[in-house]
Structure formats: structure tokens, C-alpha cells
Write a structure and sequence with these properties.
With about 425 residues, the chain is α/β, with parallel strands linked by helices. It has 17 helices and 16 strands. It binds ligand C2E and magnesium ion (MG) (2 copies).
Length: about 425
């Protein structure tokens, strides 16, 4: 791309800083990350990726002045140094222009692509005066922009700094958590509406750290995904869930299917199929008693590879469900292509079922869809009798939620199942 490297960039930065000091103006550091570059590289090859980068550079040059610096940080990351900036509005104008220009289609090897990106911005003197501080803050802001939906720019603010700190803190503790046996699983029962029987459980990961106490999955799983730790952690979850489900069969005489959540990263790394097969084999759990919960985003990424992995998983005899159904892109074609067994209606739709007619309509439609395609259907997050009544009337098969049970430690699950068996009469089923 013929762009200056980081050493030169530092040099230009010092220069811009000296100028800004004299002129009492600002310097803006823009951290820019292309949203789809990896996909272009993976699907169309490196040559196409390189062409895309060249076009990006030429468009970036058109959005900036000669006195500004554009530098590539390897891969799909760029740093832009804008010198002599009078005010924040000027930076905003340039950032919007870059977003617009890069999002315009470009023709590469006969394909029409765009180079949508996310931009993080830090300012001298507002956010600091050293190169490294501004770079780190622009990076944090970029990260934040990506999380907020991509193809936008974010300025750095102190709250992001705290988030970055928390991220680092959790990552450090997570590194040791597996070896120090800080994880355990809870199990949330799933109940068949018609019979009231417990027809399965979902394994939910719990983390108790000696210093941090209990940390919620919503807080630590995104961090584990970012740093790749979700892969070994996910393998541990599979191992543990299969072992404990097999334990239930041996000690309680219960053939209770267990559902395990999979993260997108586990799909993208090789070894998932081996990890699932190994967990089944070592535990002795029959494959049909293991269900893997995927999210819609997994199925939309890198479709051919995912399809291949899903085929192998199905060949093992495990079941597949789609978690949080309706919150992603809900491409209906994948339901057939991936031979999914069950849909889980996301709890955000179930929550206001009785007050929000739109959510009620969505839930009704998803139930109909599942029935037409002969898929199983579970409603998540059922908390009230009113929700249950609606779901029953609409023909929903199974439910999961606080109305029946919170996620339980294994010993509590066993007690729960025994109690339900006792109240259900002398039947052999749970
Ligand atoms: P999820 O898979 O959709 O799991 C359901 C979540 O809803 C659980 O939150 C559960 O405790 C909660 N829940 C169940 N019933 C109710 C209810 O009636 N009301 C409300 N308000 N909430 C209910 P949890 O355990 O905090 O897990 C959150 C998310 O973390 C999970 O969402 C899943 O995406 C992820 N997660 C949990 N364990 C694992 C794991 O082992 N691997 C991976 N990759 N992700 C996991
Ligand atoms: Mg789940
Ligand atoms: Mg869910």
C-alpha cells in the first residue's frame, strides 16, 4: 500500500503535536478497522483482499488532506493522524465522510464489495498527549464502535477506559479459572406443556472467582470469546455436561437430554467435532441425549464450513437447536439446510407477550413455523402463568423459565426431579 509504518507514524505524530501546541489546535487519532476484510480474504482470496486495500487507501486519501497521515497497522487496521484540527465537529465531518466513501460499492474481480469500517477516535489534548495513550484510547473507542453495530465512529470517553480495564481484569482471571476449577454448571429444566414432564435440561456455565465472586455469563463470556478462551472453556463444558448427564442415567435412572451452548468461535476453530465426539465417548452418554445450541449468527458465518461441521455433528447423532431464535437474521433457508431439530424462542419476545401485540404475533408466528417444519419448539424465559397460558393456547411444545425452575446446581436438580416425580405419582418418567 506504500504507507508509512509505525515508526514513521510516531515521528509524524510528534511533529503534528508540536504544531498543534503552537497553534492551540488539536490532533485526532483515528483507529479504523474494516468490518468484512477477513471475509473477503477468506472467500475471494488474498489477491482480491489486496485490491480491496488499495481501493480503501485511495478513498481514504480522498477524504483527508496532504498534511494528514494514513498508516496501515497490518491486517485490516489503519491509523489516521489528522493534524491541525480546530474542533471536534471537523473530525466528525471527516469520519462521516470516510464511512460514506468506504461503504460505496467497489468492483473487485467482477464482485461488488464494500469496505464498511468501524472508527475509534481519540483527541490531543483532550484524551492525552502521548502516542501510546491516544492509540490505546482510539483502539478502545473502535472496539466500542464495532460492538455498537459497525460502520459507525465513536469518540473515546472515560467509560470506555473502565470497560477496557474490566475486560483486561476478567481476561487475566479467566486465564487461570479453568486450571483452578472455578467453573461449574447449573442446569435449567425444560418442561413439556402438555404433560408437565421435565423433558430436558440446559447446561449453563457458572464462574466463581475467589476475588470477584460470582461473575455472570453475560459479563465473562464475551471476554472469553474475544481472547479465544471460550474454546477450551467450551470443551470443558461439553465434557462436564456429558459426564453429569450420564451420571443422572446411572444413579437416578433418568435419560434426560442435556443442551450445551456453543459459541461462534468454537465453530470457527477446528476440533469442535472431535471435542464433541470425545466428550460423548469418555462419558458414555448416548449421542441423542446431547443437544447443541447454536445461534443464528453461527449459521450465517462462513456457511460452507459451518455446513460441513454441522453435517459431522449430526452424523454423531446429536441434536441441534437454535438459541435466541428471532434475535439474529432468522434466515429461514438455514433451518432446512442445517437440519435443525428445535427452535428456542428468545426470552425478549416472551417477556412482554401479554402486553405487546407485536411480540405476541412474533411468538405465534415462530410457533407456527416450527410446527409446519415439524421442529421442536421451546419458549425461553417463561415467568408467569399468563405467558404459559398464551403459549399453551398457541400450541407451543416446551417451556423453560423461572416459573418452573431457576438454573440449579446438580444436587438441587436431582432433588427437583425427585420431587416432581413424587408429585406426578408413581410414574417412571420425570
Ligand atoms: P441462553 O443460552 O439464552 O440461556 C438462557 C438464559 O436465560 C440463562 O442466563 C438463564 O439463566 C436465563 N433465564 C432462564 N429462565 C429465565 C427467566 O424466566 N427469566 C429470565 N429473566 N431469565 C431466565 P445465564 O445463565 O445468565 O446465561 C446467559 C447466556 O450466556 C446464555 O443465554 C448463553 O448465551 C451464554 N452461556 C451460558 N452458558 C454458556 C456456555 O457454557 N457456553 C457458551 N458459549 N455460552 C453460554
Ligand atoms: Mg442457550
Ligand atoms: Mg437463549
Amino acid at each position: 500500500t506504500g504507507l508509512p509504518n509505525r515508526v514513521l507514524l510516531r515521528d509524524r505524530f510528534e511533529h503534528a503535536l508540536a504544531m498543534a501546541e503552537r497553534a492551540r489546535s488539536r490532533v485526532a487519532m483515528l483507529f479504523l478497522d474494516l468490518d468484512n476484510f477477513k471475509r473477503v480474504n477468506d472467500t475471494l482470496g488474498h489477491a482480491a483482499g489486496d485490491l480491496l486495500l488499495l481501493q480503501v487507501v485511495s478513498r481514504l486519501s480522498n477524504c483527508t488532506r496532504d498534511s494528514d497521515t494514513i498508516s496501515r497497522q497490518g491486517g485490516d487496521e489503519f491509523i489516521l493522524l489528522l493534524s491541525d484540527i480546530p474542533d471536534q465537529e471537523t473530525v466528525e465531518r471527516i469520519a462521516s465522510k470516510i464511512l460514506t466513501k468506504l461503504a460505496e460499492p467497489m468492483e473487485i474481480n467482477g464482485h461488488e464489495l464494500n469496505a464498511a469500517c468501524s472508527i475509534g477516535i481519540a483527541l490531543y489534548p483532550d484524551d492525552g498527549s502521548s502516542f501510546d495513550t491516544l492509540l490505546q484510547k482510539a483502539d478502545a473507542a473502535m472496539y466500542n464502535a464495532k460492538g455498537a453495530g459497525r460502520n459507525i465512529y465513536h469518540f473515546f470517553d472515560e467509560q470506555m477506559n473502565q470497560q477496557a480495564h474490566e475486560h483486561l481484569l476478567l481476561q487475566n482471571r479467566l486465564n487461570r479459572a479453568l486450571f483452578q476449577a472455578e467453573f461449574h454448571l447449573h442446569y435449567q429444566p425444560q418442561v413439556e406443556i402438555a404433560s408437565g414432564r421435565v423433558i430436558g435440561v440446559e447446561a449453563l456455565l457458572r464462574w466463581r472467582n475467589p476475588d470477584l465472586g460470582d461473575v455472570a455469563p453475560a459479563r465473562f463470556i464475551p471476554v472469553a470469546e474475544d481472547c479465544g478462551l471460550i474454546v477450551p472453556i467450551g470443551a470443558w463444558v461439553l465434557e462436564e455436561a456429558c459426564r453429569q448427564a450420564q451420571g443422572l442415567r446411572l444413579t437416578e435412572g433418568l435419560d434426560l437430554p442435556v443442551a450445551v451452548n456453543l459459541s461462534a468461535l468454537q465453530f470457527r476453530r477446528t476440533g469442535l467435532v472431535e471435542s464433541v465426539a470425545g466428550a460423548l465417548q469418555r462419558s458414555g452418554l448416548p449421542p441423542h441425549l446431547l443437544e447443541l445450541e447454536l445461534t443464528e449468527s453461527i449459521l450465517l458465518q462462513d456457511v460452507e464450513n459451518t455446513l460441513e461441521t454441522v453435517r459431522h455433528l449430526k452424523a454423531l447423532g446429536v441434536r441441534l437447536s437454535i438459541d435466541d431464535f428471532g434475535t439474529g437474521y432468522s434466515s429461514l433457508s438455514y433451518l432446512k439446510r442445517f437440519a435443525v431439530d428445535r427452535l428456542k424462542i428468545d426470552r425478549s419476545f416472551v417477556r412482554d407477550l401479554n402486553t405487546d401485540p407485536d411480540n405476541a404475533a412474533i411468538v405465534r408466528a415462530v410457533i407456527q413455523l416450527a410446527r409446519s417444519l415439524r421442529l421442536g419448539i421451546v419458549a425461553e424465559g417463561v415467568e408467569t402463568e399468563a405467558q404459559l397460558t398464551f403459549l399453551r393456547e398457541e400450541g407451543c411444545q416446551d417451556v423453560q423459565g423461572h416459573l418452573f425452575s431457576w438454573p440449579l446446581a446438580l444436587a438441587d436438580l436431582k432433588a427437583f426431579l425427585r420431587r416432581r416425580r413424587a408429585t406426578a405419582g408413581a410414574s417412571t418418567s420425570a
